[in-house]
Amino acid sequence: xxxxxxxxxxxxxxxxxxxxxxxxxxxxxxxxxxxxxxxxxxxxxxxxxxxxxxxxxxxxxxxxxxxxxxxxxxxxxxxxxxxxxxxxxxxxxxxxxxxxxxxxxxxxxxxxxxxxxxxxxxxxxxxxxxxxxxxxxxxxxxxxxxxxxxxxxxxxxxxxxxxxxxxxxxxxxxxxxxxxxxxxxxxxxxxxxxxxxxxxxxxxxxxxxxxxxxxxxxxxxxxxxxxxxxxxxxxxxxxxxxxxxxxxxxxxxxxxxxxxxxxxxxxxxxxxxxxxxxxxxxxxxxxxxxxxxxxxxxxxxxxxxxxxxxxxxxxxxxxxxxx
Length: 323
Prior knowledge:
The chain has helices spanning 19-30, 55-60, 77-93, 105-112, 123-136, 138-148, 150-155, 161-174, 201-217, 220-228, 245-251, 257-279, 301-319; strands at residues 6-12, 32-36, 63-64, 97-101, 190-198, 285-289. The chain is an alpha/beta fold. It folds into two domains: 6-114 and 186-319, P-loop containing nucleotide triphosphate hydrolases (Rossmann fold, 3-Layer(aba) Sandwich), CATH 3.40.50.300; 118-183, Histone, subunit A (Orthogonal Bundle). The protein is globular. The termini are close together.
């Protein structure tokens, strides 16, 4: 199918797969700018914990949504999508190629496709809300909705607990109010060529384990100590994050350093597994799958992935056909 729309390039993949370096190499090849679709890298004060791009990358290619907000500020997928779409359109108007990269699947989907209320669900959130309903009743649940989404609370009576539940679930999963969902229910005025880096599980998990040690060597504990003087994972959503929460629990004396490292590595691997599950459900996504044999050296994976993405993007652009 021929497309006359502008074309963005998305580089996706689980945490630890090399998205940051890969997107940098792709952006350098196409003289582009990078839109970060990461719900944690957008915050200041936590560059190590959120694995933000280093100075070499940030100085080499213009990035958006890196270290822009204070940890206490809320930033939903809908807000991100609206702002990121405007940035992408501005890039096109300047003849610049937008490269979108990040591991937050909902942010990426909101930007490239829009998302719909029926696609959003979380068994964990529903279980939590059921427990609150049993203990405190439907009026308490309705008051919870009123605090985060007054417009929906006004239009849904407490007696309609199922609808109240649904509106709260959407907010707790996405940070978006049901009453404002329409702003991300439409596709953007550009197309996106989407790629995902897919490494063998053993290779990915080894990279994750090593990265955790590298983060500790780079000052993770000191960074979290400073964060903890202002914020806590129980009250600030942005620091309720793998790598931060476990260090805070260590600093509170709830486990020793060895256990802290084990938990960060385990929880990061679990997060990567959830990301891959999400990616495998995405439509129109091309996986850049590393071979089980002849796998590039770990240090070369980003160069290999970037070369594959560049090659396939050029082929697509030259043909003008969507595969």
